[in-house]
Amino acid sequence: MLGFRVRTGWAALAGVCVAATACIGAAAAQDQVNVRFSWKMKGEYAPYFTALDKGYFQKENLQVRLGEGAGAQAALGALIQGQEDIVVLPGIFALSAIQKGLPVKLVALYHPKTPVTLITFPDKPARTPKDLEGMTVAHSVGETGTSYLDAFLKLNGVDPSKVKRTMMAATARVPAFMQRQVDVVSVYQTNDLPIMLEKEKTPFVVMDMVKFGLSVPGMALVTSDQHLAKKPDVLMRFTRAVAEAIKDAQKDVQGATVATRKNWTSPPSETAVFQQIKATVEAIPVPEGQQIGWIDAKVISDALNLLHSVGEIETPKPIETFFTNALLTK
Amino acid sequence: MAEQPARKRKKNYARLVVESLAAPGLVIILLLTWQIAVPLVGLSDFILPTPWQIIRRIGVDYRLLLSNMMVTLFELVGGFLIAAVTGVVTALFIFYSRVFERAIYPLLVALQTVPKVALAPLLVLYLGYGYAPKLFLAFLLAYFPIVIASVVGLQSLDKGMVNLVRSMGANEWQTFFKIRLPAALPNVFGGFKVGISTSVIGAVIGEYIAADRGLGYLQLQANSHFDTTLSFAAIVAIAAVGIMMFALLETVERRAVFQREAAK
Q1: B129-176 residue pLDDT tens
Q2: What DSSP character marks residue A184?
Q3: Which stretches of chain A sit within 8 Å of chain B by CB?
Q4: Cβ of A74 and B125 within 8 Å?
Q5: What is the Cα Rg of chain B in Å?
Q6: Model ipTM?
Q7: Distance between CA A326 and CA A232 in Å, rounded?
Q8: How far off is chain B from A34, nearest CA to CA, in Å?
Q9: A114-134, pLDDT tens digit by residue?
Q10: Across the interface, do B225 and A69 touch by the CB < 8 Å criterion?
């Protein structure tokens, strides 16, 4: 009797060990991918959390760690030092960094045009770029909407000298606008705009800068030349998983909202996150015959010309220095 | 004549009550003024929530605040302890070596004058996104006041006392442990008290720059959602952490300093 019990006990233990080894083995077979966002949590990052939640990363045999960031500069620094495999950041920033010699490349571009807007109060509205004349705009260093304001105004036949700018810290822009210390502030449809519209009863006047011709590459995936050489297959699977998640999110924004809020320490309301994600996925084009994220050389070329026109870069390097579509397969 | 001492005692008692109630009384008056003024002026809670809204929010989100408070506490205590040990050791070297003093002081002052907010992004670049940059910032902000206060404490001892114990045959170790250190303790703890407060600042600045947890991170998140009430709740929690650590240090100081005095 005792002998039977002992044999059964050993058999059970052996079974557990085999199962555990199988699990560990399965986990060990997955490739680790460390992803760093350039900024704090926002609805714009929904595709990555959807991919995590719906198992798209797992399907590609990837163990993905998503980390919030502290600015594009720190994210690129971590990438170069090998702490991260992929960084999610505004494409325009990456182009500037590559021009300055950073050994990285854009490998996917989800927002060829950053969905940025200028908002004003209804009693002093700016519905067109011409209405901005005589107004004061809140500006902070590195802020997309106003960093290219001159180019945007010239594009629309407005004299930039007629639009005043007030420089301030990034976090002070919206409070300054709410306090009427400035007339105009730029906000993102994929981040602050839905929250502001929900919180404030005021029906802000929203000027979509994209509709008036501003084309600044936004959400992009960037990796280092070293990673591209060492693990292209892993990165390819990552972009494929993200593309699937984007398609999923475009069909089911509510599902993406749930997946994103689950991973958010202190999320805004479900409505606000829903609107952020809706704006995010609506701004992601689905190119014909190509994988989502496909980079159009003309978009990069136009962005480089924009950077050159505002004096941020000298004569651009050859265009192939800046991006590759090698990781995007149909 | 017999009534006078009784009247004097009453007066003293009344004065004691007024003095002990002065600080909480002032706080209550300020809070009440704030509570009444905000709706009167017509400010939205996005601009300035009322104290009652903040207190209610603390009640609703206490778990969130508490969990993030633990993270900040770990960072500031870790940074402070490193600063305390290295700070006192540096002070000893400065006290006993003139060459070291001449070499290190300019560097210390230069380091102190660099705004730590400017250093923070670079620290993230070099130390990554984990606890390291926060611990380092907490250490950096606490280090200088601890060093300076400890040096002042060691230097403040009356030379006559040192000469006296030496004349009784005491060696340098005995002089240090029985005379110099006890005399320096009040200053050392003064440095510790400043250091613990500044290490809170260091930890929070680190969280502003690179964190996914902590009270600084929570406040940043709240600001990005225009949730000023939660932002204030996080500020109250930060202040509470600072006060708590300061009070703890005062308790330790009372035991350390008075124990030595009792042993004499």
Answers
A1: 889 999 999 999 999 999 999 999 998 887 887 788 888 888 888 888
A2: B
A3: 36, 40-42, 67-71, 73-74, 77-78, 81, 83, 171, 174-175, 178-179, 191-192, 195-196, 199-200, 265-266, 268, 272
A4: yes
A5: 24
A6: 0.70
A7: 9
A8: 12
A9: 999 999 999 999 999 999 999
A10: no
| Selection from A267, A143, A301, A272 nearest residue A197 by Cα | A272
Domains of chain A: 27-112+217-321 (3.40.190.10), 116-208 (3.40.190.10)
Question: Which pTM value belongs to this model?
Answer: 0.81
Q: What is the 3-state secondary structure (H, E, C) of chain B?
A: CCHHHHHHHHHHHHHHHHHHHHHHHHHHHHHHHHHHHHHHHCCCCCCCCCHHHHHHHHHHCHHHHHHHHHHHHHHHHHHHHHHHHHHHHHHHHHHHCHHHHHHHHHHHHHHHHCCHHHHHHHHHHHHCCCCHHHHHHHHHHHHHHHHHHHHHHHHCCCHHHHHHHHHCCCCHHHHHHHHHHHHHHHHHHHHHHHHHHHHHHHHHHHHHHCCCCCHHHHHHHHHHCCCHHHHHHHHHHHHHHHHHHHHHHHHHHHHHHHHHHHHC
Which of A81, A179, A199 minimises the CB distance to B226? A199
Calculate ∠ Cα A306-A307-A310, nearest 5°. Answer: 85
